[in-house]
């Protein structure tokens, strides 16, 4: 039986110091677990692998992967985990970081799509012109 759920999103910039950023995320994950919630997997996760599988039912996942012959594919944990950064590396020092700021990233994407012609792909979709 399904239960009521409340989905709360947290967006924005976190602490600049990477260790503090990870610590705040780990604190959020811990608080969510204590309250009976969990972090959605479209967000960065900082669980250890053991913590992740305790939360997301590894036996069920493995059985599903075996049923559909998907055991050689990366696991969900492999796909969503965040690799730790090298000591002293600052993620904010990326030369393209300004492209991720709203609305610059979207405008940049539209400019590239227009210049390449990709923006009109939907008008030439093959499925639109097939006879049924």
Quickly describe the structure.
This protein is mostly helical and 132 residues long. The chain contains five helices and no strands. GO terms for molecular function: Delta24(24-1) sterol reductase activity.
Provide keyphrases for this structure.
132 residues, extended, mainly alpha, 2 domains
Please give a structural write-up:
The protein is built from five helices and no strands. The protein is mostly helical and 132 residues long. The chain has two domains: 93 residues, no CATH class; 39 residues, no CATH class. The longest helix has 17 residues. The termini are far apart. The mean pLDDT is 81.
Helices and strands, with pairings:
Elements: H1 18-34, H2 49-55, H3 58-67, H4 76-80, H5 104-116
GO molecular function: Delta24(24-1) sterol reductase activity
InterPro entries: Diminuto-like
Uncertain ranges: none
State the share of residues found in helices, binned by percent.
25-40%
Q: How many beta strands in the DSSP annotation?
A: 0
Helix segment tally: 5
Shape: extended
């Amino acid at each position: 039986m399904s239960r009521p759920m409340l989905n709360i999103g947290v967006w924005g910039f976190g602490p600049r110091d990477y260790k503090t950023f990870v610590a705040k995320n780990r604190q959020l994950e811990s608080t969510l677990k204590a309250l009976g919630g969990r972090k959605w997997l479209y967000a960065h996760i900082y669980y250890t692998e053991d913590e992740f599988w305790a939360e997301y039912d590894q036996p069920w996942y493995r059985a599903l992967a075996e049923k559909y012959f998907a055991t050689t594919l990366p696991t969900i944990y492999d796909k969503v985990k965040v690799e730790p950064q090298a000591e002293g590396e600052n993620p904010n020092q990326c030369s393209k970081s300004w492209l991720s700021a709203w609305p610059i990233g979207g405008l940049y994407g539209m400019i590239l799509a227009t210049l390449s012609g990709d923006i009109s792909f939907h008008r030439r979709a093959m499925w639109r012109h097939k006879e049924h």
